[in-house]
Design goal:
Largest sheet: 8 strands, antiparallel
Strand content: over 45%
Number of strands: 42
Radius of gyration: 24 Å
Number of helices: 0
CATH architecture of one domain: Sandwich
CATH class of one domain: Mainly Beta
Shape: globular
């Protein structure tokens, strides 16, 4: 069971966004995003507030594992600045990237450290107390932006995003200038721990190509995903080319560079619609996981074989590749509406966690079984799968409002942390309890930071979630409920979507047929209980 440990809502008077989250080895939480006007942070004893200098300023926040505020800093200027991504190293130094405009003071304390630019990339390092160590500005006269950042065990810093026209990445050495092939091109950059540039690479074509997410493995290989358009060259070395051609206006790309920034491989996936890779992660054996969105019929096998996923609307994909870029598996999650995966991460056992948003009724078990969540509007989902792509659990944060889960991380004991934003009223407890929050004036976006704890199954007599089967699903009111063994005092209860009980009974054999013919069409929820303790909950859809 995934229990709500805490949720924090920095309250504002404007539209505010939590963009990215990171966890250190002690379990402290770092978040970054952007805000406007005044933003209030609850410290339990008093209220700390930040006031933006321009239209949007950056905030960087550090919380304890209990959710208590340790410090919060703002970075801004008279125009707008946005923090898009955050990372933390083993010494608790904090790295971030995003975009700044105009004159911006990147020293969050009493000193000043100004960068001047149009819409330019920043890369920043703070110490564990939030003091500035260094900041670097990159870009040119048009729109340039950092979207994702990570750091290795040696303090080397890797980032991706996009640049336009000509971008300067080292003002003292024009060898690090990049010139786009058209509108916007992808960059991948590596800095040392002091902020000195080691290399930067540019990839793209005549239209917009955007890097959305970056990850590294234990050997210093660099992986990125995002989207590309028409024909794009993914070999950044001079004199060589490796062209990918999109099937639609936007297609997904996945790229691997070695530690020197040289191309190892690049892959493209897409149909005639818009398909986007939003997030990438690497597990401890070097396998690569990507999530995002796709539309239509997409072949997710980059080799000679084919593996098609077909969307209903705009659907979530989760893809696993081996270190050589070969497909291991790909999964689709979605319904008739728009469903998007925004962030993916892994734990020490190579389980996979994703977050994003969904709407309507969506089956979050991508395999033969089903696990339905029912969204009222655009609700936040949190999902866990094993490394083979098998469903473990999924939960929603939902209500009459709408929300976006933008970033997810997991600590060493598999506590789950999410940040993003919401509008209106959402219930932040994924279980029976109701923990409602309403955004500013009921209509503006507010930031949330959420922690879920996972109950340990060690020493208990749980029926594993993945071994319970309910089929067929959807059904007409008659279905089979299968458990791996007969357990004394195992009972079940079925309620409708309003929480009204429609049936209850006991299970006295491994496969039981439940006949509820005549039930109105709709979503129903079944709870299997053992020894008076809830152990499993699923949903099914009744249709004529």
């Amino acid at each position: 069971t995934q229990n709500l440990d805490w949720v924090k809502i920095p309250e504002g008077t404007c539209e505010n966004v939590g963009a990215s989250i990171a966890i250190n080895e002690e379990g402290d939480i770092y978040t970054i995003g952007y805000f406007c006007d005044t933003l209030y942070f609850d410290t339990n004893s008093n209220t700390t507030s930040l006031v933006s200098e321009g239209s949007y300023d950056i905030y960087i926040q550090k919380l304890s594992s209990e959710g208590n505020l340790i410090w919060v800093k703002s970075i801004g200027g008279i125009s707008y600045q946005k923090g898009n991504s955050i990372a933390v190293d083993g010494s608790n130094s904090v790295y971030s990237t995003g975009v700044y405009t105009g004159m911006t003071d990147f020293d969050p304390n009493a000193g000043t450290s100004y960068l001047m630019g149009g819409e330019n990339i920043f890369t920043q390092k703070l110490d564990g107390s939030g003091n500035l160590i260094w900041v670097k500005g990159s870009g040119g006269l048009s729109h340039d932006e950092g979207t994702s950042i990570t750091v290795d065990d040696f303090g080397n810093v890797y980032s991706t995003g996009f640049f336009s026209i000509t971008a300067v990445f080292d003002p003292n050495d024009d060898a690090f200038d990049l010139t786009s092939a058209g509108s916007k091109d992808i960059f991948v950059q590596k800095l040392d721990s002091d902020g000195n540039i080691i290399w930067v690479r540019g990839m793209g074509g005549p239209n917009s190509d955007i890097g959305n997410s970056i990850a590294i493995d234990d050997f210093g290989n660099v992986y990125s995903t995002g989207y590309f358009s028409t024909i794009s060259d993914f070999d950044p070395s001079e004199g060589n080319s490796f062209l990918l051609t999109s099937n639609g206006y936007w297609d997904i790309f996945v790229q691997k560079l070695d530690s020197e920034g040289e191309l190892v491989w690049a892959l493209g996936f897409g149909d005639t619609g818009d398909d986007v890779g939003n997030s990438i992660a690497v597990d401890n054996t070097g396998n690569i996981y990507i999530t995002g969105r796709f539309n239509g019929t997409v072949d997710f096998d980059p080799g000679d074989d084919t593996f098609f996923l077909v969307s209903e609307g705009e659907d979530i994909f989760i893809q696993k590749l081996d270190p050589n870029g070969n497909l291991v598996w790909a999964k689709r999650i979605g319904g008739a509406n728009n469903d998007i995966g925004y962030s993916i991460t892994t734990d020490g056992e190579n389980n996979i966690y994703t977050t994003g948003h969904f709407s309507g009724t969506v089956d979050f078990d991508p395999n033969a079984e089903t696990y339905y969540l029912d969204g009222e509007g655009e609700d936040i989902f949190i999902q866990k799968m094993d490394s083979d792509g098998n469903f473990i659990w999924a939960r929603k944060i939902g209500g009459s409002g709408s929300g976006e889960g933008l970033s997810i991380q997991v600590d060493e004991i598999n506590n789950v942390y999410i940040t993003g934003y919401f509008t209106g009223t959402l219930d932040f407890d994924p279980n029976e309890n109701v923990v409602n929050f309403t955004s500013t004036d009921g209509g503006l976006d507010d930031i949330f930071i959420l922690k879920l704890t996972e109950e340990s199954n060690v020493g208990s007599s749980n029926i594993p979630q993945s071994k319970i089967k309910l089929y067929p699903n959807p059904n007409s009111g008659q279905f089979n409920l299968e458990i791996p063994e007969v357990v004394e005092n195992t009972r079940f209860e079925i309620v409708d979507n309003l929480g009204l009980k429609v049936y209850e009974g006991f299970l006295n054999k491994s496969i039981s047929t439940i006949d509820l013919s005549g039930l109105p069409n709709g979503v129903y929820h079944i709870t299997v209980t053992r020894d008076n303790k809830r152990k499993y909950k699923a949903s099914f859809l009744v249709v004529d």
